[in-house]
Amino acid sequence: MAAAKLEDADALIDSVETFIFDCDGVIWKGDKLIDDGVPETLDLLRSKGKRLVFLTNNSTRSRKQYGSKFRTLGLTVDEEEIFSSSFAAAAYLQSIHFPKDKKVYVIGEEGIINELELAGFQCLGGPSDADKKIELTPGFYMEHDKDVGAVVVGFDRYFNYYKVQYGTLCIRENPGCLFIATSRDTVFQLNGVQEWAGGGSMVGAILGSTKQEPVVVGKPSTFMMDYIAKKFGITTSQICMVGDMLDTDILFGQNGGCKTLLVLSGVTSHEMLQSHNNSIHPDLYTNQISDLLAVKAATV
Ligand SMILES: [Mg+2]
């Protein structure tokens, strides 16, 4: 069924208890708010007693680091309301009781290492492998740690062949080693100027050399939906998922049984939404989240 344009913001707000917002392309683009109405929109929803949750597939930062980004942008958000795919990787390993004497090899940035260490896991790789190079000289043999029991792969601006080879050796040679992806995002708005290759490109490299499918912990996997619903004791039918990407945010909301609202302020254009090639249809769409303020204007 084709998505309907958001006309009655009041009815939407009244029909749900919790809003889960994606961040890139919804709340901000790079280091700027999507529009000046964002703080007022969040304030309005809070004043109506709505629970707000922020969920990003971007794993470069930890929850704590995202907390300071929200504050820098002038938004009052509690760190407990923020969930990132870096946190999801740690929460997933905890949920399966990943042994604390095993290690995790990280292809990704600081956020993943921070969250894993905060959860008490031993990590290798991450930013410390950023400058490593491999010289394929005759007879060169690369050692790897046999205690690595999981390889976590996320978006990584310092991706290199050393990391690919290290992760590949762990997955192929350590019995039972897990392959975990924080997300498989195609592209995202890193700096607000153009689209940049997302975490899916790093995950694809490891998939290519191991022929293994990863466990995805970020959107559209329902792992974080189940986690958030359980943590706050909410029913997913009482949630509205708000995002700018069809194959991550909207699919995540639909997989979880939520209402879905697509905003056109990020990577998805109106043409892409209406295209015959698109099979993912949100319940509603609108230009930007501050359109939810229409309710306020209408009642004045
Ligand atoms: Mg987004």
UniProtKB/TrEMBL annotation:
Entry's EC annotation: 3.1.3.18
Annotated Gene Ontology cellular component terms: chloroplast
Top enzyme category: hydrolase
Residues reported to bind Mg(2+): 22, 24, 244
GO molecular function: metal ion binding; phosphoglycolate phosphatase activity
Cofactor annotation remark: Divalent metal ions. Mg(2+) is the most effective.
Chief subcellular location: plastid
Annotated GO biological process: photorespiration
The UniProt record lists the keyword Hydrolase: yes
Active site per UniProt: 22 (nucleophile), 24 (proton donor)
Keyword Plastid listed: yes
Cofactors demanded by this protein: Mg(2+)
Catalysis performed (reactions): 2-phosphoglycolate + H2O = glycolate + phosphate
Compartments where located: Plastid, Chloroplast
Superkingdom, taxonomy of origin: Eukaryota
Keywords attached to this entry: Acetylation, Chloroplast, Hydrolase, Magnesium, Metal-binding, Phosphoprotein, Photorespiration, Plastid, Transit peptide
List of residues binding substrate: 219
Function of the molecule: Photorespiratory enzyme that dephosphorylates the 2-phosphoglycolate produced by the RuBisCO oxygenation reaction.
Family, per entry: Belongs to the HAD-like hydrolase superfamily. CbbY/CbbZ/Gph/YieH family.
Descriptive protein name: Phosphoglycolate phosphatase
Protein's organism: Eragrostis curvula (weeping love grass)
